[in-house]
């Protein structure tokens, strides 16, 4: 796998690092953070890593790692005004950043939507409103024209599962709504928005690699019993296949046939033809797996693998499931080249004498890079890998309590410190053949 053609990078997202909330519109995560009890440490994204202020130093940091690429996201509320016109100051921030990345030979991988929906659009129904899909396509149109040829790759969405299921179905992410039909309807509109925006990208930016980023939590059955095997399959359809199957097969998985009428999303004629636009790449985000058993009420329920190793956020460490996932997707769909757009671990880091010796995270990366390599050896077309994350940042409902960075951030001083995992990544990249 260590051929020079393989792209290695680090990833971040706008709301999680930027700060400078005063120079953009409010988004759904500002509102969610301001709602008591939603974010564990009661924090918000107002300062975060102060990346808008410190971006030049952050690019130095990225360059010092020797990566080929940097995956970032654009804050929709920073680049458009309420009337949909471009906010030139916000756009200029990204243009300067993109120019600097290009000047240093670091390929910009740009995600258009990493969860920070402008609040005024949410006030009009957000992703439950079909109109939002068209507003997204308009945003994609304007921003791609403004960026010109500065971008190497565009992803329409990051993890529509999280936006729809976590945000609109169980309410643990912004906007915090909780109803099954909301989850399914928002998912449909996010996928529709993806398809509409892909058409825009193909027109405005035919020379970039254009695609989407999906997250997968492979589902295993607790036992070999037929009931548990079926439960795992249903969970997989609901949490994973729901977001990829429409892209290739123009339909939702068969579990939709189990739905009560009131849970069914409204799907208009022709929607699947819009959704199933050809993509140049598929981005895969992977962190962990889940194990299910049959449940008489819900069909499937997740069980805790109590005895297995876990990261600081409680996610089981099971690298084999990463290989299994990649191999299974390859078997199920006619996939374009894939990038691992996120992989990483939250660990309980300690800054001691100016050092963070995160051997646990380093071992996670080692095992998961091996898992990717094993998939490549089995014929899966994986062309790049991005560590999540460049630096510690705002971890959504966990606030600043969970650290995913390969670089440590002291939020009081904004000092960045490379962890052992960052040095190891740097060595890996420096010693490529
Ligand atoms: C994700 C998000 C990241 C998270 C990471 C760890 O795509 O889920 O891209 O924003 O920080 O996954 O939870």
Distinctive features:
binds D-gluconic acid; TIM Barrel; 14 helices; alpha/beta; eight-stranded parallel β-barrel; 433 residues
Task: Walk me through this protein's architecture.
The chain has 433 residues and is an alpha/beta fold. It has a single domain (7-430), classed as Glycosidases (TIM Barrel, Alpha-Beta Barrel), CATH 3.20.20.80. Helices cover 40% and strands 17% of the residues. A hairpin with a 4-residue loop joins β12 (407-410) and β13 (415-418). α3 runs parallel beside α5, α8 runs antiparallel to α9 and α12 (320-332) runs parallel beside α13 (359-377). The N and C termini lie close together (10 Å). The mean pLDDT is 98. The chain binds D-gluconic acid (GCO).
């Amino acid at each position: 796998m260590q051929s020079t053609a393989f792209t290695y990078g680090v990833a971040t997202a706008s709301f999680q690092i930027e700060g400078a909330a005063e120079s953009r519109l409010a988004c759904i995560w500002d509102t969610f953070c301001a709602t008591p009890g939603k974010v564990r440490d009661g924090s918000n994204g107002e300062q975060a890593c102060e990346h808008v202020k410190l971006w030049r130093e952050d690019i130095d940091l990225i360059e010092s790692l020797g990566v080929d690429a940097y995956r970032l996201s654009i804050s929709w509320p920073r680049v458009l005004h309420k009337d949909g016109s471009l906010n030139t100051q916000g756009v200029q921030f990204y243009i300067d950043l993109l120019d600097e990345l290009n000047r240093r030979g670091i390929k910009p991988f740009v995600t258009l939507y990493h969860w920070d929906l402008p609040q005024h659009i949410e006030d009009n129904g957000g992703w439950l409103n079909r109109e939002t899909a068209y507003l997204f396509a308009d945003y994609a149109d304007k921003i791609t024209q403004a960026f010109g040829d500065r971008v190497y790759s565009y992803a329409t969405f990051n993890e529509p599962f999280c936006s729809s299921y976590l945000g609109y179905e169980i309410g643990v992410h912004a906007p915090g709504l909780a109803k099954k039909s909301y989850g399914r309807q928002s998912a449909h509109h996010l996928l529709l928005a993806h398809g509409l925006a892909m058409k825009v990208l193909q027109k405005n930016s035919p020379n970039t690699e254009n695609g989407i980023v999906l997250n997968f939590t492979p589902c295993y059955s607790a036992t070999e019993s037929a009931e548990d095997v079926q439960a795992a399959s249903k969970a997989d359809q609901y949490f994973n296949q729901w977001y990829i199957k429409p892209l290739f097969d123009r339909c939702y998985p068969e579990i939709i046939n189990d739905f009560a009428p009131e849970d069914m999303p409204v799907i208009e004629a022709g929607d699947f033809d819009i959704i199933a636009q050809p993509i140049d790449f598929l981005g895969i985000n992977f962190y962990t797996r889940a194990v299910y058993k049959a449940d008489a009420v819900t069909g499937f329920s997740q069980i805790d693998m109590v005895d297995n190793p876990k990261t600081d956020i409680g996610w089981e460490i099971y690298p084999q499931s990463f290989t299994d996932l990649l191999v299974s997707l390859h078997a199920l769909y006619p996939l374009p080249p894939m990038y691992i757009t996120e992989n990483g671990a939250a660990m309980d880091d300690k800054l001691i004498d100016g050092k963070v010796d995160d051997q646990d995270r380093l071992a996670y990366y080692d095992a998961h890079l091996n898992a990717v390599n094993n998939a490549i050896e089995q014929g899966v077309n994986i062309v790049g890998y991005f560590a999540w994350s460049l630096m510690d940042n705002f971890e959504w409902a966990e606030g600043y309590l969970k650290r995913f960075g390969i670089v440590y951030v002291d939020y009081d001083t904004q000092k960045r410190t490379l962890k052992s995992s960052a040095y190891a990544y740097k060595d890996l990249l420096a010693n490529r053949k």
